[in-house]
């Protein structure tokens, strides 16, 4: 255990949080994907940061680029408890044109390259590269231990996925010792695993390097013509060919709320996946345990009074069944089923919500009926608006996903209201 503590104290977590996440459609019009709300109180980025904190890592940095204000403000408010005098910190590294006046972050590796001088000043031995846009719980110390014990040049966090589904990922062929023999981006015919040809190892976008080794690689890659300066596209394939790349199975380090639970990891990068992961939290025994005090998910929590339910009349009864309702909500004569409401949502009499995710500070008008929807933050749903019964009619004004989830933003509501 002592060696684990020493490794985490020598490690920095570098979170890549610059991508828009365009598959989330209008949810990322005003915020980067890692800053999108999730689970009633948190943001997506809180999971990578909390994993690092719970793993004993106290040095972190977040590289930002696209519409970063919401993310920066969240980190300033919710993650400002680090103390420099204890040699701990969370730094925000916007794309600040450090190489030249025209160059922003050109790729995931370039985001690290442009901050080499800053990282050097931290005096670290290992660097942990994290994607800031996935939902999971993981003890990074276990991965660090494996990286050191196998004498790897890079250790890649991997999911075990069905071979027929692996074409959507960067996948790895490995030998019996889990040494990576090839790294392929979204191949048409993914390789199977030794002893299990129907399964494939897919990259989670999590990498461990010794900093001195990665530093030299990044400087060399910076000078290569034709390089996209990307970890998955350039850096990892180079190490597979010229060094030792080790695969680390997520099942070895995932944090479960019970021994029989499956390893939980979700890419909530589409509206359908985002809706499903949030609604799954309303299940009787959800796969993701947000109540686990041994592995808490830290966040900025608004000061809000408890949720309030009012009115008890026929068809005007404020109640919620199989749902999650955050603080500050006032459920006034509304029927809510299998839904998730974030902080300070207000619902009015005779409204009905079913399988609906409502982001903070939204208001649901009287007699509104929403089914299988995602309502963006601060949206005011007008009185009597019905969404979720007629997909073709909904698609005239709202964003309807392939899975039949309707995304509602204020601009869409304004268009709907103008047409009435």
TrEMBL record:
The catalytic activity of this protein is classed by the Enzyme Commission as: 2.7.7.27
Q: Which GO terms describe its molecular function?
A: ATP binding; glucose-1-phosphate adenylyltransferase activity
**Residue span(s) of domain Glucose-1-phosphate adenylyltransferase/Bifunctional protein GlmU-like C-terminal hexapeptide:** 305-408
> Could you say which residues are annotated as the site Could play a key role in the communication between the regulatory and the substrate sites?
65, 104
Nucleotidyl transferase domain location is 13-282
Q: Which PROSITE patterns match?
A: ADP_GLC_PYROPHOSPH_2 (PS00809), ADP_GLC_PYROPHOSPH_3 (PS00810)
Which reaction(s) does its UniProt entry say it catalyses? alpha-D-glucose 1-phosphate + ATP + H(+) = ADP-alpha-D-glucose + diphosphate
- Record pathway: Glycan biosynthesis; glycogen biosynthesis
Q: Which Gene3D superfamilies match?
A: Hexapeptide repeat proteins, Spore Coat Polysaccharide Biosynthesis Protein SpsA, Chain A
| Top enzyme class | transferase
Q: Name one GO biological process term.
A: glycogen biosynthetic process
Q: Which UniProt keywords apply?
A: ATP-binding, Carbohydrate metabolism, Glycogen biosynthesis, Glycogen metabolism, Nucleotide-binding, Nucleotidyltransferase, Transferase
Q: Which HAMAP family match?
A: GlgC
Q: How does it assemble?
A: Homotetramer.
Relate the protein's function as given in its record: Involved in the biosynthesis of ADP-glucose, a building block required for the elongation reactions to produce glycogen. Catalyzes the reaction between ATP and alpha-D-glucose 1-phosphate (G1P) to produce pyrophosphate and ADP-Glc.
**Protein's UniProt name:** Glucose-1-phosphate adenylyltransferase
What is this protein's gene name? Answer: glgC_2
């Amino acid at each position: 255990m002592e060696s684990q503590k020493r490794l985490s104290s020598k490690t920095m977590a570098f979170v890549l949080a610059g991508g828009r996440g365009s598959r989330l459609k209008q949810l990322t019009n005003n915020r980067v994907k890692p800053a999108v709300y999730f689970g009633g109180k948190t943001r997506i980025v809180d999971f990578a940061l909390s994993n690092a904190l719970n793993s004993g890592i106290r040095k972190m940095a977040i590289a930002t680029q696209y519409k970063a204000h919401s993310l920066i403000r969240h980190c300033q408010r919710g993650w400002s408890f680090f103390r420099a005098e204890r040699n701990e910190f969370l730094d925000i590294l916007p794309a600040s044109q450090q190489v030249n006046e025209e160059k922003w972050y050109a790729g995931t590796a370039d985001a690290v390259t442009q901050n080499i001088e800053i990282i050097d000043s931290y005096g670290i031995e290992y660097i942990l590269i994290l994607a800031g846009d996935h939902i999971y719980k993981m003890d990074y110390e276990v991965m660090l231990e494996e990286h050191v014990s196998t004498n790897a040049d890079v250790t890649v966090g991997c999911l075990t996925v069905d071979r027929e589904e692996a074409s959507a990922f960067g996948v790895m062929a490995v030998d019996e010792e889990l040494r990576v023999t090839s790294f392929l981006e979204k191949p048409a015919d993914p390789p199977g695993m030794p002893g299990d040809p129907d399964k494939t190892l897919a990259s989670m976008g999590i990498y461990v390097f010794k900093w001195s080794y990665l530093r030299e690689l990044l400087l060399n890659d910076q000078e290569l013509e034709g390089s996209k300066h990307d970890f998955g596209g350039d850096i990892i394939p180079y190490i597979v060919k010229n060094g030792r790349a080790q695969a680390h199975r997520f099942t070895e380090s995932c944090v479960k709320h019970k021994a029989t639970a499956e390893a939980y990891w979700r890419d909530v990068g589409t509206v359908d996946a985002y809706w499903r992961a949030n609604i799954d939290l309303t299940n009787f025994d959800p796969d993701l345990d947000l109540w686990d005090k041994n592995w808490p998910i830290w966040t900025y929590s608004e000061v809000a009074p408890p949720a309030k339910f009012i009115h008890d009349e026929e068809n005007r009864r404020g109640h919620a069944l199989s749902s999650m309702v955050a603080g500050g909500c006032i459920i006034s004569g509304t029927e809510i089923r299998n839904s998730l409401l974030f902080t300070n949502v207000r619902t009015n009499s005779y409204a009905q919500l079913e399988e609906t995710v409502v982001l903070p500070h939204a208001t649901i008008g009287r007699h509104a009926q929403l089914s299988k929807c995602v309502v963006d933050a601060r949206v005011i749903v007008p009185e009597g608006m019905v969404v979720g019964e007629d997909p073709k009619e909904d698609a005239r004004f709202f964003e309807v996903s392939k899975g039949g989830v309707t995304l509602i933003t204020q601009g869409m509501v304004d268009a709907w209201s103008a047409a009435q």
